[in-house]
Amino acid sequence: MCKQIEIWSVGNTGLRNPNRIQEGFKIFSNSPFVGKLHGKENEINFMKFLNVKGIIQNKEGKDISGSHTRKWRLMFAKNGFIFPQISKKIGEQKNLGKEDEITPFGEKFLKANTYSAVQECFLRAMSVEQYSIFNGTQYFSPLRWVLAIMLELENQTGSSEVTRIEFALWVQTTNPTYKVSEVVEKILDLRKRRNVSLSKRKFDKSEINERSKNYKKSSNNFSEYCDMNMRYLRISGIFQRKGRGLIINSTKHILAEKLAKSTTSNESLLQQYKTLCNGASLPTDNIEIAKSLLNNLIKELNYRHIKFDLSDLTLNTSIDINIARQRLEDILAQMDEINYAQDQCNHWEEISDYMELIMKGGGTKKYNEDKIIEVPKDETPVYLEWIIWRASLAINHIVNKPYEVRGFKIDSDFLPISTAAGGRGDLYCEFDNFVFLVEVTMSTSSRQEAMEGEPVRRHVSDAILKYKKPVYGIFIAIKIDTNTAETFRHGIWYTKEDIKQDLDILPLTLKQFRKYFLAMFKGNKVKPDKLRELILECKLEKDKLDAPTWKKYIDVTVDRKVEEIEIM
Questions:
Q1: Counting beta carbons within 10 angstroms of the beta carbon of residue 67, is it exposed (0 to 12), middle (13 to 18) or buried (19 or more)?
Q2: Residue 24: in which H helix or E strand, if any?
C-alpha cells in the first residue's frame, strides 16, 4: 500500500458544521440569488447577504473575494440541493438543470422539519457515488466505503468502532481501489502498536509523518479533514460519535449492511448528478427493509422502557413505515437528551472551560489524546447559548424538559446547530417556585442596548404573564454596555393593556457568571436559589445608583457572594 495518497472530503473545511447548511439554504431559497451564485459580483453580494442575515461572521475587510459564497455553493451542489455547474466533458447543462437553481431534492430538504428528516436527506445525498476513481471510469461514495470498512472491523473484532487516528490515516485516505480486507489489516496493526506505545501523542505524530511521505500536501490535512469528514458523516444518522471516533448506529445496522454492499458505480457522472438532484433511493424505500429498521427501533425503545404510540399511523407502505420510524427516532432523541441533561452536573468543569474559550473568542482545549473541546471562532454566538443551557442543566432542579428550556437546535451529539429563533427568549428555566429567563449575546458594542434592550424586556414581560410564579431575567454578555445596564436598571415595561411592570433583569458578564457558577460547584452549594439570591442582592441598590455605579456594585456583589460560598 505505497500508492500516492489522496484524502477525500465529504464536506468543506471552510464550512465545518453541516448542521448549518439547512439554515443557510433556507435563507438562500428566499433570496434574489437563486440561480445566480456564479460570477464575482454575485459571489460578493451573496456573501454580504449571508453576513447581514447572521449566517456568517465576515468582519469588514476580512474577505472581499466572495470565498464564503463559493464554500456554501459547493455544499449546496455537492448535496444535490442546487444544480451544479458542469463542464461539457460531463454533459450538457440543459440535460441536468439550470446551474444554481433549486433542485427537486432541494425542495424536499427545505421541507425537512425534524432532525431525523434532515439526517435522511444527507444520507440520500452521501449515498450517491460521485467521487472519481480509476481515471474517471468509476465513481464511489465515501459513506458507503466507510461503512464497508467498519462492518469488516466489526466482523473481525466484534465492534465497528474506528478511532480518530485510524480514520485519519487509513479510512479517509483510501477508496475502493484498495481492498477492504487490506485496509482493515492496516487499521488493526496500527491499533495494536498504538496500544503498547508509551506516548500516544508521539506515536500519532510519527505515524502521520510516515504516511505523509506518500502525500503531496500538508500533513495537517490528516487531522483537519478527519474532524470535518467525521462530523459530516455523523449528520447522516447512520454513524454515532464514539470518543473522538465513529461507530455504526445500532438501530440502523441493517441499513448500513445494505448500503455497504455497493461502494462503486459505473454510471456516468451526469447520471450520478441527476440521481443526486432528484433524491437518491435508499434501501429503506423497500417496505421489508423499512419494517426491519422500525422493528429494531421498537426493540430498542422497549428495552429502555420508553413509551410510544403508533396507533394513529397506518403502516401499509414504506413511506408510512419510515414516518413511524422517524417519530420513534425523535422520541428516542428526546429521552437521550433527558439523560444528557441529568448528567451535566458531572461536567461542570468542562462547562466552565467552554465558557473560558468563548471569552477568548473561540479555540480549543486539549485534555488528552482522546478528549478535546472546541468552540469554532465563527460559531461563538450559538456556543454561548449552548453552554449557558448546559450550565443551567448542571445547576439542576429544572422542572421543564431540557428541549423545552432551549430555543436553539442541537444535533445528535448534543452540539448546537443554530441560535434561538426570534420572538422568544433564549432559555426558559422553570423551577418549583420561580423561573429564570436567560438571554445571551456576543454583542459588546454600543448597539447592544438597541439590539437587546427591547426584546429582553418584552420576553421577560411575556413570561411574567405566562407563569404563575416569579420570573427573573438574566442577561449574559462578554461585556455589558452601560446603556444596556441602564435599560435593565429601570426595568420598566408596559403591557398592551398599559399595565406597568417592574422587571427584575440582572446583567452579568460571562466572566461574572462563570465565577459564580464555579463557586457553587466548588463550594457544593449548587442550587438555583443561590442564583436567585444573587439577583435579589444586586437588585437592592439599583434604584439608588446610576448605571456605571450599578455595574460596579454587581461586580462587587458577585465577588462577595463567591467568597461567602467558599467559606461556608
A1: middle
A2: helix 21-29
Grid cell locating 264: 462503486
* Reported pTM: 0.88
Q: Collapsing DSSP states into helix, strand and coil, what is residue 129?
A: coil
Q: Cell digits for 137? A: 471510469
| pLDDT tens string 244-285 | 899 999 999 999 999 999 999 999 999 999 999 999 999 999
CA–CA separation, 439 and 380 (whole Å)? 15
Would you call 12 helix, strand, or coil by DSSP?
A: strand
How far is it, in rounded angstroms, from Cα 321 to Cα 218? 47
Cell of 278: 432528484
Residue 408 vs residues 81, 99, 106, 124, 416: alpha-carbon distances, Å = 24, 33, 23, 25, 7
The dihedrals phi and psi of 11, each to the nearest 5 degrees, come to -135, -145
Residue (of 119, 191, 181) closest to 152 by Cα position: 181
Question: What does the radius of gyration of the chain's CA atoms come to, in whole angstroms?
Answer: 26
Contact 112, 121 (CB under 8 A): yes
pLDDT at 482 over 90: yes
Beta strands in 398-514 (DSSP E): 409-410, 416-418, 427-430, 435-441, 471-477, 492-494, 500-502, 505-509
